[in-house]
Amino acid sequence: MKRRGRLALSFGLILIASISPAEAGDLSANDLLLVYNSRSTASRQLAEHYSAARSVPPDLLLGIDMPLRESITAKTYEEIAATVRRFIQQRSADQPILCLVTFYDVPLKISAIKQTKEQRKRQDELRKLRGESVTAMEQLLQQAGETKEGHPAASEPNATTALEMEKRYHALRRKLVNSLAAVELKNRGAANRRFLEFVAAADGTRAALSIARSSFERYAASVEQSSPQIESRRKQIGDAEGQYLQARKRLRIIRDEGPLSDKLLPAIEDIRRVLGLLDSLKWLERDIERLSLKESHAAFDSELSLVLWKNYGRYRWQPNLLSPEVRVRFPELRRPPVMMVSRLDAPTPKIVRRMIDDAVAVERVGLSGKCYFDTRPLKKNDAYRRYNLDLMRLFHLVRDKTDLPARVHLGPGVFPRGSCDDAALYCGWYSLAKYVPAFTFRRGAVAAHIASFEMISLRSKTKNYWCAGLLYDGVAATFGPTAEPYLESFPSATRFFGLLLTGETLVECFYETSPFLSWQQVLLGDPLYRPFAKNPKLTLDELNPPDDSATGVAPTSNR
Fold first, then answer.
1. What whole-number distance in Å separates Cα of residue 451 and Cα of residue 514?
2. Which stretches of the chain drop beneath a pLDDT of 70?
3. For residues 280 and 58, is the Cβ–Cβ distance under 8 A?
4. With left for phi above 0 and alpha for psi between -120 and 50, is residue 97 left, alpha or beta?
5. Other CB atoms closer than 10 Å to residue 143's CB: what's the count?
6. Disulfide check for 131: which of 157, 306, 344, 539 has CB 3.0–4.6 Å away?
7. CA 279, CA 287: separation in Å to the nearest integer?
8. Looking only at Cα atoms, what is the longest distance across the chain?
């Protein structure tokens, strides 16, 4: 695997709040839309079976003519999505659809998008702007005193990366800071102004304001009492900070609209002024890469979560705004509602029917059994180790705070074949596309193996993927990726399984803890399944102690 870390909805605004077990499960059958493939008898019959089992009204079943393939083109997806979108938008405002359920024979994944003429044109425009920014940054560094030795101006500006420029900038900035102390007192004011102008041009308004604020407050603290001049200067800095925040908010809206936004090109000078030449370079590099569409493939369900969105980039992922942790990172971002999506799918229709029946039956009595966690001996302080520690944290949480027996595997490899009886929950890693049947699962078990490609297919006759293997062996729910997902796209093990233990619904656990959408992760199982509703094993206070700071792997990509 490569490295790259109760939901309330109303149209036009997404409101997110933590829930207590008493409030969990407000998601009901009337909030679902069951989407099946009208070409497939099995797909229709399973949707009808689920509708009867969960009392979903018949008018919330939507049959769509789809190819009988696991993978479809982006164009075919758009045709399917348009039908789903119309159905959702035709519902009255007091009867919104909150969750989509896809069934057996609905396509599993979407192939990469082909670049359009408009995208190629915009990519060329952004490459030109990027070259101009590199040239401007070269000139700025030389004017500020960088020697040409070792840093000749690039003959091809687009060959120089923002990262290279950033290293040179910070090296020169440290040199300038050291030299300021040697400037004569009478010349220090002018030297400081030149330094601030240099920082503002390269690193943006925020960096310059931070230096100005810090210097001013040190000066203000050194005088015995305030004065009109001091208060006037403090107000000037405060007003400038407020103007910066407003400008930053406007630019975030443009960034959210993506590289094809008609507001982007006219805003380039503002981007360079507010964010600085370095961040404008990063912005342009990111948008040029997004327009290449090299990683525009996605899981069908993950893309369907954004069925109501328009004009969003298909390169890699979008932030999941139903996750409270992600939402904190994007406080100004406003989008149409996000649809939760869960899939009732498996290698055979018989297994899907069993998944539905198991979830309904077990929910009435509550899930019991043993919990198994598979970890690896990792020492390097990186994303892999942090996820491994998250798995260990989950083990300790279950062992110390619940009455469920818990067992952890600490060595290399995974639990050996046939070694785990009476399994109710399992989470672990890492055996890539090599499912090991270590478990005898209790009815209604929930399990997940953290590895790449484990849901690249549910029908493969030649590959031994974990998702299919777990379903064959009896689990009611699992999740996994349809392609290389990067580690930070996985839900935090502690958060996902911890919320499940509080009594929350399966689909809400997944969407509260998944960082990305329009990407590779897929949830398999009854969205309304609440295996611990009858007898919650954790409270939210136990899951979220006041000193809790480690909730998973922080995203490292810039999309």
1. 15
2. 1-25, 148-158, 224, 332-334, 547-559
3. no
4. beta
5. 12
6. 157
7. 12
8. 86
377: number of Cβ within 10 Å: 9
Rounded Cα gap, residues 414 and 96, in angstroms:
44
Residues 140/103, Cβ–Cβ less than 8 Å? no
CA neighbor of 100 nearest in space, from 510, 499, 486, 532: 510
Containing 102, the helix (H) or strand (E) segment is strand 99-103
Residue type, 263: K
Instruction: Enter the tokens of residue 373.
Output: 């966690």
The 3-class secondary structure across 404-473, one letter per residue, is CCEEEECCCCCCCCCCEEEEEEEEECCCCCECCCCEEEEEEEEEEECCCCCCCCCCCCCCECHHHHHHHC
Q: What are phi and psi of 335, to 5 degrees?
A: -140, 160
The gap between the terminal CA atoms of the chain, to the nearest Å, is 19
Separation of alpha carbons 323 and 540, rounded Å = 16
State whether residue 103 is helix, strand or coil: strand
**What is the phi/psi pair of residue 448, to 5°?**
-150, 135
Residue 164 exposed, middle or buried by CB count within 10 Å (0-12, 13-18, 19+): middle
Q: What is the DSSP letter of 224?
A: S
Residue 394 near residue 493, CB atoms below 8 Å: yes
Q: Two tokens at 501?
A: 């233990």
Structure tokens at 343: 């899939």
Query: DSSP character for 97?
Result: -
* Residue showing tokens 């925040």: 245
Tracing tokens 């040179």 back to the chain, one arrives at: 168
Six-digit token string for 254: 């443009």
Amino acid 192: pLDDT: 84
How many residues make up the chain in this entry? 559
CA distances from 420 to 312, 372, 405, 436, 447 (A): 44, 8, 12, 11, 13
Q: Which amino acid is at 38?
A: S
Q: Which of 162, 117, 114 is nearest to 138 (CA)?
A: 162
For the chain, the domains span 7-112+320-543, 117-291
| DSSP structural state of residue 116 | P
pLDDT of residue 191: 85
Packing angle, helices 228-257 and 268-292, rounded to 10: 30
Q: Are 356 and 526 in contact, with CB atoms under 8 Å apart?
A: yes
- Pairing relationship of beta strands 298-299 and 109-110 according to DSSP bridges: antiparallel
Q: How, if at all, do strands 370-374 and 420-428 pair?
A: parallel
Contact status, residue 31 vs residue 99, Cβ threshold 8 Å: yes
Distance (Å, rounded) from C-alpha 26 to C-alpha 297?
33
Question: What is the reported pLDDT for 550?
Answer: 41
